[in-house]
Amino acid sequence: EDVNNIFTPTIAFSLASSSFILCFSAYQLLGDVSFLFALKVLVLLSFEIKQVIITSYFGDKLMESSSKLFDVIYAHDWTDGSPQYKRLVLITMIRTYRPITLNVAGIVDISLITLKEVLSTSYQIFAVLKT
């Protein structure tokens, strides 16, 4: 919860701004532009896409790693331990049953699906501007 409270505003702003920057930058390329300007816009597009990919990828890796933690804890030989150890293992398993996720305002979990949604939103805004 602390991690989400700290990073939610930053991630939300980053994903929203990247979506608009991608769409408006692509829209600028539709006009008659010089080669140097087109190169600058393409570099900007690549950096914005890279930023969304990195955020989405590591959010997905966090979810994947934390979901495997429950299985790893359960699979080790904890049944032969002391009652206190068994209790601690069970408490840990209860806490790790739900995977840890980065999310935006508790609405959207940051994962590779988020990458698809950001790119889809950018394209939809681009298509509206183009028409």
UniProtKB/TrEMBL annotation:
Subcellular location(s) per record: Cell membrane
Q: Membrane-spanning regions, if any?
A: 12-30
User: Does this entry carry the keyword Cytoplasm?
Assistant: no
An example GO CC term for this entry is:
plasma membrane
UniProt feature coiled coil, ranges: none
* Membrane topology value: Multi-pass membrane protein
Instruction: List the keywords (alphabetical).
Output: Cell membrane, Membrane, Olfaction, Receptor, Sensory transduction, Transducer, Transmembrane, Transmembrane helix
Cite the Pfam families for this sequence: 7tm_6 (PF02949)
Q: Cell membrane: is it a keyword of this entry?
A: yes
Single GO MF descriptor: odorant binding
Q: What is this protein called?
A: Putative odorant receptor 85f-like
Q: How does it assemble?
A: Interacts with Orco. Complexes exist early in the endomembrane system in olfactory sensory neurons (OSNs), coupling these complexes to the conserved ciliary trafficking pathway.
Q: Which domain of life is it from?
A: Eukaryota
Organism per entry = Procecidochares utilis
PANTHER family referenced in this protein's UniProt entry, alphabetically: ODORANT RECEPTOR (PTHR21137), ODORANT RECEPTOR 13A-RELATED (PTHR21137:SF44)
Major location, coarse class? Answer: membrane
What's any GO biological process attached to this entry? Answer: signal transduction
